[in-house]
Amino acid sequence: MAQASSLDAAHPRFMNPPFPNTGVKTKSTVPALKVALVQMSVGFDKKKNIQVAVNAIYEAKKNGAQLVALPECFNSPYGTKYFDEYSERVPAGETCAALSKAAADTGMCVVGGTMPEKCDSRLYNTCTVWDPKGTMIASHRKAHLFDIDIPGKITFRESESLSAGNKITTFSYCGVKIGIGICYDIRFVEMATLMAKEGCSFLIYPAAFNMTTGPKHWELLGRARANDLQLYVALVSPARDPKADYVAWGHTMLIDPWAKVEASLDEKPGLLYGTIDTKVVQDVRSQIPIRMQRRTDMYETVNKTKS
Ligand SMILES: O=C(O)CCC(=O)C(=O)O
Q: What is the pLDDT of residues 213-231, one digit of tens each?
């Protein structure tokens, strides 16, 4: 079961003990992973953003999480005009140093939301992943750039300043194979399919939907990917700031392999806790065996990023 607690940088408060001592499947022979999803406020002060994230990582640890995930653009305002100024080399910059230290200090896996990454003369929207020793074990550059035009509602062209990544990113932690996509990446079922084909039971999407597509598609897409691939999906958003240039939808959520929303936040800052139980993944996949029933003689999704 997943539960929420509130997050405030200065005054952390706990609404619920997130992981009851008896509730987690310690006797199961298949892996289970306690996770915390951080819906934090993001402003113009980069150092403060990093500190809020680090505080949340410590709060997650105090509440028993083994893995903590931050939202898209957690160290920078979201907008093409900000990416260059807030960008850093990966893993050389202050943001990576803070994430590495927080992972090592807490002994948790930290999925570092996203940050603008500078590499040569290019900018990427990049998620870094840190193991409990503080070593970077994966990084994902957003592969599908958010270029849309809904007249009168929202026009956004990430490709004005960002370059796209070109690989599928998965890693293993505590026996659970995990895949990473970033925000708009979730709209592309092929990418999620390839992550599932690599063995993932859990997909994490640091994301920042907006006030137009958020209410229409946020939950729908999360549940669709969970249902298509029969796995857990986490959508991790910044908290909503109505005064920001780009107003995030919020509603961080964890969805189970039945495509049920296990728990979700509203638009305010908070931490969401839940358990990834790979036994549930196995159950759904054996009870509705679509993975065995695909007509690969008719169609197939192929990873072209590998040689
Ligand atoms: O797909 C959407 O509607 C929103 C995507 C987005 O905000 C992003 O990729 O940053």
A: 999 999 999 999 999 999 9
Is there a contact between 34 and 19 (Cβ–Cβ < 8 Å)? yes
**Which of 46, 59, 72, 200 is an active site residue?**
72
DSSP string, 188-248: -HHHHHHHHHTT-SEEEEE---BTTHHHHHHHHHHHHHHHHHTSEEEEE-PPP-TTSSS-B
For ligand 1, whether the C-beta of 208 sits within 6 Å is: yes
Expressed in angstroms and rounded, the spacing between residue 295 Cα and the centre of ligand 1 is: 31
If DSSP codes are grouped into helix, strand and coil, which group holds residue 181?
Answer: coil
Burial class (CB in 10 A: 0-12, 13-18, 19+), 307: exposed
The reply to whether ligand 1 has any atom less than 6 angstroms from the CB of 184 is: yes
- Is 142 catalytic? The answer is yes
pLDDT on residue 9:
39
Grouping H, G, I as helix, E, B as strand and the rest as coil, residue 43 is coil
Per-residue pLDDT reduced to its tens digit, 55-73: 999 999 999 999 999 999 9
Query: Quick one: pLDDT at residue 23?
Result: 37
This model of the complex carries an ipTM of 0.97
